[in-house]
Amino acid sequence: MAINWFPGHMKKTQREIKENLKLVDAVIEIRDARIPRSSANPDIEKLLEGKPRIILLNKSDLTDSNVTKEWIDYLTNDIVRVLEVNCLKGDGLKNIKPMLLNLLKEKHDRLRAKGMVNIMMRVMVVGIPNVGKSTFINKMARNNIAKTGDRPGVTKSKQWIKTGAGIELLDTPGVLWPKFEDDETALNLAFTGAIKDEIMDIEELALKLVDRLQESYEAKLKERYKLTEVFENPLDTLDAIGKKRGTLISGGQIDYNRLAVILLDEFRAGKMGKISLERPGEEENEDN
């Protein structure tokens, strides 16, 4: 699937993130809990090496909770902590401050030994487009300082935001990377809305989503669209869904564009049930 999506401001953002890392104590990286691997920018990962970090698995209310717990164990290490959160509702965000204090304990102990008190934690917030960064910042700041939207790439410039929790946040625009290593990463980002639908063939995207779901979540697909069966050819399954949903035009043909919009909107809103598109270790298994 051809995708041309790397705007110039993303390259500029990568440079600014590298320059501004020295200004912060730690990083909060927001990922989509449905695709924790695909929603991690590998270029940013390299920049953040050695920096204390909290990974927020956002939209965890939309995922298979057992799989999300596997990801938490998989991603946690000495300087990285992981939380499952729902930034829209604020679920899990109260755990951020104690987690940061734990990560920065040695540094704070040194500062207190020098007589410093009321230490403000300065934290950079990073993440790919449409993953929930602005929603997170607004919830932490308790107002709408950061611009939000359901389109990728709403935040365009750096800004500092003070919170009432002794944390100052440095917001950065959502940034992707110039080249995907595999088609599955590109598809996962497209399924979840990190890549703008306007540059996609959404009919093909919907077909590939049906193919993925009937492979891993057949029961949920059948339940949502009241299907008695799914077919070996996902196009036949897509047609069956179209007939159930009444997305027909003259001559009884399926309006695939309208159907694609319905499918993608319902998946992104969690109406198909709790679905995780990635599991830890799958990439390694494929390489072996």
From TrEMBL:
Write out the GO cellular component annotations. cytoplasm
User: Which CDD domains does its entry note?
Assistant: YlqF
- Residues where GTP binds: N58, K59, S60, D61, N130, V131, G132, K133, S134, T135, G174
Q: Name one GO molecular function term.
A: RNA binding
Instruction: State the Gene3D superfamilies in the record.
Output: 1.10.1580.10, P-loop containing nucleotide triphosphate hydrolases
**Swiss-Prot/TrEMBL GO biological process terms:** translation
- Name all CP-type G domain ranges: 11-178
> Could you tell me the keywords of this UniProt record?
Cytoplasm, GTP-binding, Hydrolase, Nucleotide-binding, RNA-binding
InterPro entries in the record: G_CP_dom, GTP-bd, GTP-bd_ortho_bundle_sf, GTP-bd_ribosome_bgen, GTPase_MTG1, P-loop_NTPase
Q: Which residues form the signal peptide?
A: none
Task: Give the location in the cell.
Answer: Cytoplasm
Give the protein's biological function.
Required for a late step of 50S ribosomal subunit assembly. Has GTPase activity.
* Similarity comment: family membership: Belongs to the TRAFAC class YlqF/YawG GTPase family. MTG1 subfamily.
Name under which the protein is recorded: Ribosome biogenesis GTPase A
